Amino acid sequence: MRAKQHRTICVIDDDDAVRESTRALLESVGHHVREFPSASAFLTGLDSSGAGCLVLDVHMPGMSGLQLLQFLRQRGDMVPVILFTARADVALDGIVGMTTAALVLHKPTDEEALIQAVRGMIQGAEGL
After folding, report:
1. Using one digit for the tens of pLDDT, what is the confidence trace for 12-38?
2. Phi, psi of 110 (to 5 degrees)
3. Which structural domains are found in the chain, ordered by start?
């Protein structure tokens, strides 16, 4: 079944292969997806108010995914965020647990788990 989402899913990851495969997966279930190779590219390329969800790499050069999440929250932007990380970091889970509308998935992740996480984040945001 194809999703009928009208809001953009933003994939922000400095790894081209991860970013492109994540985009392709989410588009295959009906999402509109935009890719950004860095947090700064996202901040200059799109107002996050148009985003339904961010899929955000934690460890990137320059501004990290966690720093971007904190920046967005400090300015009052509650866009749902899925943080993607290849590193096990218990402290990260604790920090994210204190942040509204954020979830951590560990790379590599099951494709269906990512699809369901995005759907859940979007539905949760729409229910606010």
Report:
1. 999 999 999 999 999 999 999 999 999
2. -65, 135
3. 8-126 (3.40.50.2300)
pLDDT, tens only, 78-92? 889 998 888 766 555
DSSP characters for 65-109?
Answer: HHHHHHHHHHTT----EEEEESS--HHHHHHHHTSTTEEEEESS-
Distance CA 106, CA 80 (A): 17
Beta-carbon-side half-sphere exposure of residue 107 (alpha carbons within 13 Å)? 18
Torsion, CA 41, CA 71, CA 61, CA 20, rounded to 10: -50
The whole-model pTM stands at 0.84
